[in-house]
Write a structure and sequence with these properties.
Elongation Factor Tu (Ef-tu), domain 3, alpha/beta, flavoprotein, 299 residues, binds flavin-adenine dinucleotide, 6 helices, Cbr1-like_FAD-bd_dom, globular
């Protein structure tokens, strides 16, 4: 009887939270979405802003000035690149994943991708050669994470990422910021890069730290020490000591911490973190495909 009352009370709390949050959150009025789940569509490039030789922001036009992309927070798009493969002398195609840095909540009629181009990267070749007026093939939404649908909300997100793995994290951080009057989720971002100049969105992240009154903490990790090291949390790899220093606790049976760890980045970082979380922080073995509600989600 007592257990039943507790269960009913818990369901009522979750329901009330859901209704309150959804009535009050910054949400979109009725809009037309551009993506079609299983079908590639073409979007025209309207501008390029080069940040360095390797990094640029690409802005693509949606079907009308009032269209939204239609991407849930935490999901991504896939881009297909058709090219002539000189090794096989045949037409080839590749697809890769990208998380826009623009949010539907803030933009109409366009979306933006922040891209790092790699010397030997196949898709990087497309972004190296693309010109304003050219079109790319895009399909989506893709992915198993949907931040808005996670209930009850987590108390604390630990985001561990490297390089371009920042883009899904940035999307979630920005969404939490836009809803910060209701969404009190704490976020600790642990962001690794080789060099200071490789850090993407640093200005935006530092500004969000100031705007979010302690709700967001950012730890930069670098392989190579910059001239002034004072703002870097560690030179080297993400290890147990660093995660403890950042506040991550071992998972206890009652899971009072109500935390979730999000991972995105190069395969070495992701597999290293999966092992560390299981062996040192008591997290259950992390499956190859993770879901929104799992204790650890891998993008
Ligand atoms: C969910 C998700 C979201 C993503 N969002 C973005 C995004 O917003 N912007 C973005 O630029 N990328 C993003 N990526 C990475 C992207 O999907 C590609 O992997 C990347 O653009 C490289 O593709 P490529 O074909 O040019 O390189 P590939 O041909 O796949 O790789 C060739 C070589 O490039 C180098 N390389 C490729 N990827 C990496 C890497 N991640 N770290 C270090 N070296 C690498 C390696 O030397 C590799 O051997 C995302 C990935 C995922 C899974």
């Amino acid at each position: 009887m007592v257990n039943n009352s507790v269960a009913v009370a818990s369901v009522a709390v979750v329901l009330a939270t859901y209704i309150y949050f959804n009535l009050n959150k910054k949400s979109l009025p009725k809009f037309e979405t551009s993506l079609i789940k299983d079908q590639f569509q073409e979007f025209e490039l309207i501008s390029i802003v080069n940040h360095t030789d390797e990094i640029a922001t690409y802005k693509f036009k949606l079907p009308s000035a009032t269209h939204k992309l239609g991407l849930p927070i935490g999901q991504h798009i896939t881009i297909q690149y058709d090219f002539f493969n000189e090794e096989t002398n045949e037409k080839s195609e590749i697809i890769r994943h990208y998380t826009p840095v623009s949010l539907d909540l803030e933009t109409d009629g366009y979306f933006e991708l922040l891209i790092k181009k790699y010397k030997l990267g196949k898709m990087s070749q497309l972004f190296r050669n693309i010109k304003v007026g050219d079109k790319i093939k895009v399909r989506g939404p893709k992915g198993f994470y949907d931040y808005e649908k996670i209930l009850p909300k987590k108390d604390h997100l630990y985001m561990i990422c490297g390089g371009t793995g920042i883009t899904p994290m940035y999307q979630i951080i920005r969404y939490v910021y836009l809803n910060k009057h209701l969404d009190k989720t704490k976020i600790t971002l642990i962001y690794g890069n080789q060099r200071e100049e490789d850090i993407l969105l640093k200005k935006e992240l530092d500004s969000l730290v100031n705007l979010m009154d302690g709700q967001l903490k950012v730890h930069y990790i670098l392989d190579n020490a910059p001239k002034d090291e004072s703002w870097v949390s560690k030179i080297g790899y993400v290890d147990k000591d660093l995660l403890v220093k950042c506040g991550l606790k071992a998972l206890d049976e009652s899971d009072k911490n109500n935390t979730q760890v999000l991972l995105c980045g190069p395969p070495g970082l992701v597999s290293g973190m999966k092992k560390l979380l299981s062996s040192e922080f008591n997290y259950p073995r992390i499956k190859p495909i993770t879901k929104s509600d799992d204790k650890v989600f891998v993008f």
